[in-house]
Amino acid sequence: MVVLNKIYTRTGDAGETALGNGARVAKHSVRVTAYGTVDEANATVGLARLHATDETDAALARIQNDLFDLGADLCRPDMEQDAKAEYPPLRMADSQVARLEAEIDAMNGHLQPLRSFVLPGGSPLAAHLHLCRTVSRRAERLCVELATLEHVNAAAVKYLNRLSDWFFVASRMANENGKADVLWIPGANR
C-alpha cells in the first residue's frame, strides 16, 4: 500500500531523484526520462478518456493502470536483485503484451485495410488517441535507448511497442471504424 502524507520532500532540489531501489540519480538520466515519458503518456490517456465511450474508456483505464506498472518497472533498475528484494518489484509481464495484441486484433477485424497513411485527427477521441500514440512511441524510443546502457525488462519495451499500435487502431475505430479517417494525400499542396 502506498501512503503519501507529504507531497514535497525537498530531496530533489539539487537535481537528483531516488529510484525504486533507493539509488540517487540525476533527474535528466535516461532512466528517469524514460519513466517520466511513460507518465506523460499516461496523462494523455487521461485526456483521451474524456471523449471515450464505456467500452473504450474501460480499455483505456486498463492501459493507465498498466502504464503505472510500467513506471514502477522502469524505476527499479536492478532486476538481478529482484529475488533478494524485501518486496518483489513489480515487472511488466508478457501477458500484458498479449492482452494488447488480442485487443488490437479484435479492433482491427472491424476495419478495412488502409490505402493511405492516416493523418492525426478526425473525431476528438481519435485526435487524442493519436497524441497517446506519439507520446508512447517516444517513451518506447527512450526505453530502447536505456536498454543500450542498462538492463531493461524486455516485456516493458514490447508493451510500449504494442501500445502505440493499439492507440493507432483505436483511433481508427474512433473515426467511425476508419470511415472518418483523415488520409494523407502525398504532395497535395505543391
UniProtKB/TrEMBL annotation:
Subcellular localization: Cytoplasm
GO molecular function: ATP binding; corrinoid adenosyltransferase activity
InterPro entries: CblAdoTrfase-like (IPR016030), CblAdoTrfase-like_sf (IPR036451), PduO-typ (IPR029499)
SUPFAM superfamilies, per the entry: Cobalamin adenosyltransferase-like
Listed GO CC annotations: cytoplasm
Pfam families on file: Cob_adeno_trans (PF01923)
Catalytically driven reaction(s): 2 cob(II)alamin + reduced [electron-transfer flavoprotein] + 2 ATP = 2 adenosylcob(III)alamin + 2 triphosphate + oxidized [electron-transfer flavoprotein] + 3 H(+); 2 cob(II)yrinate a,c diamide + reduced [electron-transfer flavoprotein] + 2 ATP = 2 adenosylcob(III)yrinate a,c-diamide + 2 triphosphate + oxidized [electron-transfer flavoprotein] + 3 H(+)
Gene3D superfamilies: Cobalamin adenosyltransferase-like (1.20.1200.10)
Domain Cobalamin adenosyltransferase-like: 7-173
EC assignment: 2.5.1.17
Keywords: ATP-binding, Cobalamin biosynthesis, Cytoplasm, Nucleotide-binding, Transferase
Domain of life (superkingdom): Bacteria
GO BP annotation list: cobalamin biosynthetic process
PANTHER family: CORRINOID ADENOSYLTRANSFERASE, CORRINOID ADENOSYLTRANSFERASE MMAB
Membership in a protein family: Belongs to the Cob(I)alamin adenosyltransferase family.
NCBIfam families, sorted: PduO_Nterm (TIGR00636)
Protein name: Corrinoid adenosyltransferase
Organism per entry: Roseovarius azorensis
